[in-house]
């Protein structure tokens, strides 16, 4: 059985799953509610609470689950699964990276935390001009696809205004991507701008420095240097210094 929990913030849907889930639950509850919500919202935040009495799906429900997911593949901004069932948490975590939106698993006693996670901002891209063609780009937290939409336009505007680009890429607060969508947008941003910078400094945790230099060198024609997070000022100096 699937029960809709009303009273959640605009653009957020919460459902409680218990007992045996059937195709009728999708046809009369989950599907229609999601369809109506997507008329008023471009993307939804979804919270699924699976309680102790959950007994699984029947075959019809499994088919409806797959069909609904494919139909609205890009219609979700974030999803949380709250359950104490270890196997369901394991499946959720394993599949999260393959999903087009951020997905996270929580224990039943973390329901309030799951609701907070759905409402908070996960990550952001900050840009700060440093003079001339030098630009400080800071990636913070876990980035979802929406974070790149504004960054792409801001980067283009800076390059057009400055006439070039020297990039200080600051990854000290970066925690990765939320799902394949975030990674795809990141690679798209690199692909669309890989010929523009003539100098790139990457500041990050020492464990990733060598790998970052190898990866970026395949995407960019710029001179690339990597710096440990303690050497931020050295990276900043190299990006802003004039050519000899």
Secondary structure blueprint with pairings:
Layout: E1 2-5, E2 12-17, E3 20-21, H1 23-40, E4 44-50, E5 56-57, H2 59-71, E6 76-83, H3 86-96, E7 103-106, H4 111-119, E8 123-129, E9 134-143, H5 146-162, E10 166-170, E11 174-177, H6 179-193, E12 199-204, H7 209-219, E13 223-228, H8 232-240
Parallel strand pairs: 2-4, 3-5, 4-6, 6-7, 9-10, 9-11, 10-12, 12-13
Antiparallel strand pairs: 1-2, 8-9
Helix pairs in contact: 1-2, 5-6
What does this structure look like?
By secondary structure, the protein is an alpha/beta fold. The chain is built from 8 helices and 13 strands. Strand 1 (2-5) and strand 2 (12-17) form a beta hairpin. The longest helix is centred in the first third of the chain and has 18 residues, at 23-40. The radius of gyration is 22 Å and the shape is elongated. The mean pLDDT is 82.
Helical content band:
40-55%
Question: Cα distance, first to last residue?
Answer: 71 Å
Average pLDDT metric: 82
Principal-axis shape = elongated
* Multimerization state: single chain
Radius of gyration of CA atoms, rounded to a whole number: 22 Å
CATH topology of the largest domain: Transcription Regulator spoIIAA
**How many beta strands in the DSSP annotation?**
13
What is the strand content? 25-35%
Task: Sketch the major β-sheet.
Answer: 6 strands, mixed
Class based on secondary structure composition and strand pairing:
alpha/beta
CATH architecture descriptor of the largest domain? 2-Layer Sandwich
């Amino acid at each position: 059985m699937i029960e809709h929990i009303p009273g959640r913030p605009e653009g957020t849907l919460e459902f409680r799953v218990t007992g045996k889930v059937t195709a009728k639950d999708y046809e009369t509850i989950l599907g229609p509610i999601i369809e109506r919500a997507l008329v008023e919202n471009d993307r939804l935040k979804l919270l699924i609470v699976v309680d102790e009495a959950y007994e699984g799906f029947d075959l019809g429900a499994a088919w409806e689950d797959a069909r609904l997911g494919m139909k609205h593949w890009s219609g979700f901004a974030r999803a949380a699964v709250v359950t104490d069932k270890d196997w369901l948490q394991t499946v959720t975590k394993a599949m999260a990276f393959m999903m087009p939106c951020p997905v996270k698993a929580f224990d039943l006693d973390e329901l309030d935390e799951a609701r907070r996670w759905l409402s908070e901002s996960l990550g952001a891209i900050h840009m700060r001009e440093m003079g001339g063609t030098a630009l400080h780009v800071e990636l913070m937290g876990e980035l979802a696809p929406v974070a790149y939409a504004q960054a792409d336009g801001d980067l283009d505007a800076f390059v057009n205004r400055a006439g070039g680009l020297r990039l200080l890429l600051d990854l000290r607060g970066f925690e990765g991507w939320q799902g394949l969508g975030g990674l795809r947008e990141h690679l798209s941003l690199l692909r669309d701008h890989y010929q523009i910078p003539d100098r790139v400094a990457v500041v990050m945790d020492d464990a990733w420095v060598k790998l970052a230099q190898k990866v970026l060198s395949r995407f960019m024609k710029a001179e690339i240097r990597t710096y440990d997070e303690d050497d931020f000022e050295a990276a900043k100096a190299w990006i802003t210094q004039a050519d000899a």
